[in-house]
Amino acid sequence: MNNNDSKLKFLPLLITLIAASITAAINLIMHVEIAVFLKRLFFCIIIFYILGYIVYIIMNLALKNEKDVGILESEAEEAPEEPDSDEAKTEDDE
If you average pLDDT over every residue of the chain, what do you get? Predict the structure, then answer.
């Protein structure tokens, strides 16, 4: 497990907690009945946990691809450039 993965593993829970807090506050302000309040809160938690998990997966893939691209770029910088065979022939002919 790399460092970025450990930082992102709480992302679905954080998104869910924020959404549930906002939902609870709005329902309390509107003086909603307890049954309706609990239904809304339940569905909010389920929906936003799924959305948070999707965001978590996308961010992990993006960071993994970014890391892979960075590795490929550093390997390309370290490798010496070899002239093409056509260029070598024309330089020798002249």
Answer: 82
